[in-house]
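Researcher: Here's a chain I'd like modeled. Treat it as a single chain, no partners, no ligands.
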Amino acid sequence: CGHLKYTEHGTAMFYDSHTAYYACDYGYKLVGPSMNYTCNELTGVWSIVTSDNPDGTPPTCQKIRTAETRQEDIVMTIESDTAVNCNSLSDALQSSLEDMNALTCTTSNFCNFGDFNCQHDSQTSIITMEFVLTQTYNLMDKNILEDNVNRIKSVTSQLELVVSDFKKRSTITLGGAVFQSSSTTTECPDRTVEENNDCSTCSPGQGLNRDETECRMCPIGSYSAGGYVHCTPCIGVNSTTLSVGSTSILSCVNTDSVCMVKGIQSVHGYLVPPPGSRVVLNATVTGVCPRGKNQAFGVGNRFRCKSQEYPACFDMCNMAKYNKTNLDERNIQDDFERRWYFHNEEIAINCKNGHEYASGTEPESRIFICDNGRIDIGRCHKKTDDFVLTLVVVVLSVVLALLIFTILCVCFRKRSHVDKKRKRAELELPQLRAVAIREPEQAETSVSGQAETSVSGQAETST
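Model: Modeled as a single isolated chain. Structure tokens:
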């Protein structure tokens, strides 16, 4: 990922090549929470780059102002069956903490120990102790009191206090101390704000809230150069800023020139800047696909934010999986690049001598295309011998000719038979017609003869 961007009055500190954080120079404080940033090995981008911070702008180190006052209120408890003298308990506690190097600000005159108060609870046999550490030196540095409080916490359970009883007639040894709580109170000078017990003005990109009690990041459409000021809105209804925390009027742009990075990680991969980022209309977006995926062949991974469609990520085809043994089994030549191929990328596969694919215009080679991670180069088959092939072709041709000749002969015979029957029918037709004419005449003659015979017979009978 390289180095993180430089921040004024601060330094990028690296745990290792993949993890880093920002630290400010002495007298400056980091605006916002301290964060660890990690490097994304796939994209080569630090995690500081987000949709709210697409440029990866580092946090600001703001100058700390000297506080008016700062004090730490601490509450502890210790076991005791009887009441004790509070002054004696106060002296014993301070002395023990100093001897254990837990309370160093008093010995170095950086703070005062005071306002001690104690109260005994006879029912629980517990004495509650309250005291105040008041910082007297270098009030710009809040760590003086914080460091002392942390050391006191670590040794409280080891305390053994020798104190006088309430009437100062005898001494007793107390133990079983418990650290209960601590709270810091800081008063800042005029025209400054208190944040996390530091006094300062607002950093660039921040402005005062309505009550002027704290600094807040300037929202989109406003800016601030920093100081004890409010955020200033951009001039004009069509004027805005690209992101929150803008620092000058030069950050104001026309709303028509702003582009929102779109895209879906599962489809388009990791986008830099990430989806949701506000950038200028013609800004370049880089798409980084997960391992094993990439944009289609011939399609770049850099494109404009305003593009209607962002290039998608596809599975790549692993042609490196074919070793020499695999290719020998498939009768394929080892003459192509064994690598990862892009979606829609072509690859020419050639058969070994004497082999060919079962189909295709050029059976000795074939073009395959990677289809979203899917590709199968198949296998080549041994060619048939030319003499055998020629013999087969000749035999098939003879058989086909004989078959055609047989069919023609059968058709010719059938046609000749039909023609003979037609001619015979034409010769017999006049005779049939003559017979048909004679038969009705013979029938009439026969009927009239029968009638005449019948009449003559009847006449004879009558006679």
